[in-house]
Amino acid sequence: MTIKHKKGQETKKKLLNTALHLFAEKGFDNVSVDEIVATASSSKGAFYTHFKSKHEIFLEKFKEMDNFYESYFSTHDKTLTAYDQLLSFFKALMTYMRDEIGLDMLRVIYINELNPNRTSFFTNPDRTLYKVLTTYFQKGINEGDFRTDVNAEYMTKCMARIIRGLIYDWGLYKDEVDLVQESTTYLRYALDGFVKK
């Protein structure tokens, strides 16, 4: 990596972290690009070199999440049943959300993704999260552990909705709910619905 490239990456990271902090503090719509660059001691030119818009800041956060999913999936114990792999993955996912992303950032992301004027990244079927879940479910179907009257893509859609709901619920109840503990119970119940009887 050249010095110029390294400096560019450092600037991008500083702008990203500054923007996310301001979004969490003031709300996405109350923060301008001017404020982001002023707080980061940067320039508009630097901002638009790295991001097309404020919304693209969130795409970077989603990429970070998807990198986590991909990394976890590539190092996961493939000898486990699909059911056990999914339970382990769900626990790792929710632990990551709780400990690395955090409730404040998730609130900001959810508020932004509910904007009716843009397509939400939550619904992008090409996300790594959906590919990982579909792979696990397809394995379970192929090995005879999961039912065959619904396909792996539908199972993935159902579980993704449940995961989003659990995270949203965590935001409502704040410290009253432990995201990892609650999700372990609920996701097991939901997953049981796909087990072949």
Automatic annotation (TrEMBL):
Q: Which InterPro entries does this chain map to?
A: DNA-bd_HTH_TetR-type_CS (IPR023772), Homeodomain-like_sf (IPR009057), HTH-type_Tx_Regulator (IPR050624), HTH_TetR (IPR001647), Tet_transcr_reg_TetR-rel_C_sf (IPR036271)
Q: Which residues cross the membrane?
A: none
**Keyword check for Repeat:** no
| Keywords, sorted A to Z | DNA-binding, Repressor
Protein name per Swiss-Prot or TrEMBL: TetR/AcrR family transcriptional regulator
List residues of the HTH tetR-type domain: 9-69
Species annotation = Alkalihalobacterium chitinilyticum
Give one Pfam hit by family name.
Answer: TetR_N
Keyword Cytoplasm included in the entry's annotation: no
- Residues within the DNA-binding region(s): 32-51
